[in-house]
Structure formats: structure tokens, C-alpha cells
Amino acid sequence: MAVAADYRPTPRTTPTRYRDRARYDRDTVHRILDEALICHLGYVNDGRPVVLPTTHARLGEVLYLHGSSGSGPMLAARWSGMPVCITATLVDGLVLARSAMHHSLNYRSVVVVGTARLVDDLDEKRRALDALIEHIRPGRAADCRPPNARELAATAVLAVDLLEVSAKLRLGGVSDDEEDLSLPYWAGVVPISVAAGAAQPADDLDPATPLPSYLR
Question: Is residue 87, in this structure, part of any structural domain at all?
Fold first, then answer.
């Protein structure tokens, strides 16, 4: 069955402000999720809201997150599906306006709302863990020791279907009020980007170990 080009907006994925910044096309959502290295998992634990930073990986229309098998969200999801809200954000620029009120950020973000399930199938769990390593650095999953049985037992994986999803973007320059344009303050955008530096070998690495091609 063909997948629709856009996610369907729902009351939970429709912004109350700046609705013109919302995007529901899969390409935009997937690009943001695939580029972001960190997401934040929100859930309720004993009536208390909890938000945790974690790593993630997308395989098709499923988002995977991992953690210790004894952690709060993994235990909560074990007994029944756990309602979650997952966010991923990329900051692209600092927007400095003439007025304090109009300072902002250029950003790309995704919000995923749904029910997380604990991955019990061993094959799916291995695929998800490989995807999490590949998300950190493509090519790495085949270039390291895979988890053994003890490590697999100590690691839990959550899966969330990408059903209720929205992206939100702020692009462009300063939006000062017309009466402020003549004020003597600098205004503009400071671009922000994440760049990888040169790989630094571990202190105990054999000097003869070659640098992998995916790190050059």
C-alpha cells in the first residue's frame, strides 16, 4: 500500500500560534528527524510529567528510542502502551532584532504524538539498535562489535509509529516593527550549524588501527 505524501493534521499536531510555519509533508519531517542527533521524550510517570533527552533513529514510518531496560519509560511501556510526546529540534540561526520582543531563532522542529510500545521481537530490536548506531555515524554499525545477549537484555527499545506528526519551521530574517527600523541597533541573523571536527583516537587505540573511511 502506498504511503500518503503528507501526515494528516490533528488537534494535537496543529499549532495554536504561527500555523503558517507548520509542515506535514513526510520529506520535511523525515529530514529533520534524520538530521537531529538528540530528541526529547515526554511521558507521565506516577502523575508527574517527565522529559528525557535521548537518541533516536527512524526506520520508515517508525521512530525508535533506546534506554536501560530498568529505566522509567521502559518499565512504564512494558505493561501497556505508553502515551508519549517526542520532539526533535535543529537550531539554524539567532535572529537579533532591534526590539527585544522580536528576537527569535531560526529553527526546524518535529513533534511526534503517539503510543510507545516496547520492542519484544529480537530481530526488530537488533535492526533498531543498528539504526541507532547508523544515525550517529553512517557505516558504523558494521564496524563495531554487535551487542551480546547480556547487553541486549540490559537494553530496551521503544517504538512509536509516525501517525500524529507535525514539523514547524522558522526561516528568514528579522521581523521588526516599521517604527523601529530607524533605531540605531544592529539587526540580522547569526547562522548556527553543527559541524564534526577531526576524529580523535582513544588513548589506548593501537596506532596501527586505520581511520575508517566514514570518518575521513
Answer: yes
